Amino acid sequence: MAFRDVIGHRRLVSLLSQAIRRLSLTPSLILSGPDGVGKRLTAVSIAQELNCLTMDDAGACGECAVCRRIARGAHPDVMTIEPGENGSIKIEQVRAAIERAVFRPFEGRRRVTVIEQADALMMGAQNALLKTLEEPLPASVFVLVTSRPDTLLPTVRSRCAHLRFGRLQVAEVAAALERSESYSHADALTAAAASDGSVRRALDLEADAFADARSDAENLLHVAGRDPRTRLEQAKNLLKGSGTPAAEREHLGARLTAMTSLMRDAGLVASGADAQLLANLDRKAIVDSLARALGVDRIGRIFAAVARAEDALERNVSPKVIADWLAINVH
Ligand SMILES: [Zn+2]
Q1: If you measure from the C-alpha of residue 29 to the centroid of ligand 1, how many angstroms do you get, rounded to a whole number?
Q2: In whole angstroms, what is the distance from residue 306 CA to residue 322 CA?
Q3: What's the gap in Å between 171 CA and the centre of ligand 1?
């Protein structure tokens, strides 16, 4: 996974790539941003870009012996530190990494130490790291990866170049799922639709359950202009009908989330936005038809009604009452 293979984040990757080419990469970096968007893969790619044997104009090859060993975590000059069993990174782990980093690289050109979940660094470990960040070791780079950069000491943050990763686009999440998880194109798009721009989230969610919830949401939205009786009948599908109260609430909650997502997309289409921005990219035809049938004003009203229904669900109002109220108000 060299820079050429990183999905999304083109601006950040291009900045890093230029710095590496000009030999001006800062010796300490923070890569921050949401979980599951590719921060760790980018950190590993930095090690490859610095050490690849067969660089070309596009950067590291990702395929030579060095690139492959770095990807496997088996290169002597590339070290990863991560939290231990108790969930924290101890001072001993950081000291051991610094001791190794003092020596010239064994094989490569630059030593790279990646600290994963750097927010788990204990205070003592951060202080131990600070001295090295203040007086960088020659030929050594530290990359701190975290979704919570604010938990790092201000003194640590101020010694590092800070690169902030955003969420991925739906099509980018789908591309990542297709490539590394062997999803079919259709499955990848469905999983990506509810991923909120995070590959990890797409992998965690149950795609089938999501598809069911969205299908119920679509059916209610399709009858939005019809008579109240039809809408009330259709709204019954938002309810599970059996199961624990918690399961009932979760069932309805998933359908409300899907309605919000569909209405947001329909609003984007109605206002002429780029299709690449749609969360429900795999249901573009449905989103288009909803946008045409409902129009901007009604989409706005339904969006607000669903938001109120979600609030009511939070306040423990009964799912049945919420579904009926929504049926009346989706008009
Ligand atoms: Zn290579």
Answers
A1: 22
A2: 10
A3: 27
